[in-house]
Amino acid sequence: MGKAVLFKRFLQHPTQVGALCPSSCALCRAMASEIGVENAGLVVELGPGTGVITRELVRRLPENGKLLAVELDELLCEHLKRTFPEVEICHDSASNLGGILKERGLPPVNAVVSGLPWAVFPESLQREILGALVENLSEGGYFATFAYLQGLMLPAGIRFRKLLNELFSEVTTSRVVWKNLPPALVYRCRK
Predict the structure, then answer these.
(1) pLDDT above 70: residue 2
(2) Which domains does the chain have, with CATH numbers?
(3) pTM of the model as a whole
């Protein structure tokens, strides 16, 4: 499963699958860096898609660390289960993060990484998912997500950045990752 399947899923569900092609290696490295994955007990990935960022997270996770991936698309979920047997894959909505963690008896999360298409979500859904995320993130924990350059100045992109500033004590951005289609930057947010 690769570019062709992701493109097909994007055409079928553009508000769930937000990318035409998988993130580049450069963007995956930027997403997983500077957020403490190497020392984390529990990392959650929201919207792993085909698993390109998942692969980088697994590579960085400590031996005793756990990765939980939450994916809404059933076909992508099945692909992830086959590809990453060491990762706990959950077919559910990111807005149910609290319920997912409680059901599994898991502690607060050290880092959350998200490939969700924030720019296509209405404000209510952005708030719902971010609220669940913040509520279940450990104190000092990190949240990382990316935004495509062309979307930063659109109303949804501006609204999303304001929400991040409202919900997190610290929000920084990476340098532009030009080796991605389209170019993107990473938001790193600390609780």
Answers:
(1) no
(2) 3-190 (3.40.50.150)
(3) 0.89
